[in-house]
Amino acid sequence: MGFRIDKITLRRLRMPLVHFFETSFGRTYEREIILVEVSAEGLAGWGEVTCGEGPFYNEEWTGAAWLLLKDFAIPRVLGRELDGAGAVAPLLDPIRGHLMARGGLEAAVWDLEARRNGVPLWKQIGGGARREIPCGVSIGIQDSVDQLLGKIDHELKAGYQRIKMKIKPGWDVDVIAQVRRRFPEILLMADANSAYTLAEAPRLEALDEFNLMMIEQPLGHDEIIDHAELQARLKTPICLDECIRSAHHAEQALRMKAGRIINIKLGRVGGFAGARAVHDVAQRHGVPVWCGGMLEAGVGRAHNIALATLPNFILPGDVSASKRYWKRDIISPEVETTPHGTIAIRDEPGFGYEIDHTFLSTVTNAQESFA
Questions:
Q1: Which one of 123, 164, 257, 265 is the catalytic residue?
Q2: Which of 166, 168, 257, 327 is catalytic?
Q3: In terms of pTM, does the model score above 0.90?
Q4: In order of start, what are the domains of the chain with their CATH numbers?
């Protein structure tokens, strides 16, 4: 039986990070986050728009996402009779790009549908392959190698199963060599966020000696062909991130042998429908996937937990405890990890946590409702 969305509310949050997070394209001290609340039949579902504050990871940023939702995405969904959450993505498909904005709205409707059906979100999306998801951490570029080594040691003692370190030209081979000398046996990967070109392939080939799990998105954010050429030269698997925005991109990349692993980020592929489609393509090709992160607050983090219960998410993802990023999160209870580096999934309806409305109101600096 279908339902009709009768109200949609956008909130723009500002939340300072516990510690700065630096990638090849810059350093972040606080996050601006858009939450999407969709209402129907007295129930509310929640989604998070995961784009950054500037158009550097991809072309999206919070200011543009707000306008895109307000002027184009929300009018296509509000007041519509929906057969289910799966109907949202086709309604938004005529909008070119802006997948993170679209994905925040789409994910909110999935959460609403799960609550309406009285089931956890992971079950609503077809997940549930595991009761605990394996967790890794993503560690940004630091001010010194000693600082990086200290952070890695701290996260390993917290139980995390895999360490991802950000790299860029000048912070790569020598730094990874020092990490490997200190931690010779850990599961270690490097994430370049498109910081290199094919001309720098010899520098990336030098990473083969360090027994990395993968090198994530070393080349251009929209480049599949050059990744195929680079992968042929590397022993280390390439993990594709930014350049995989759809199941079609995944199919093309895997047919071309452009990578051996795919990172699925819910926002980057437009929500749960897109994420499941990429997951299924990779599974058919025998290629593992894992869940990437975008410095999400609690809503997006809970959605990632649900996503990571799909069967082909067999590698530790970037989903970690709330306290790694926030002094206080917007959900209750906050996301916590077990001593052995996992997060237990929850069985409450929807994404499994409560919104901390009191704290949410203190970090909200803009709000607009549509009915």
A1: 265
A2: 166
A3: yes
A4: 3-118+356-370 (3.30.390.10), 124-344 (3.20.20.120)
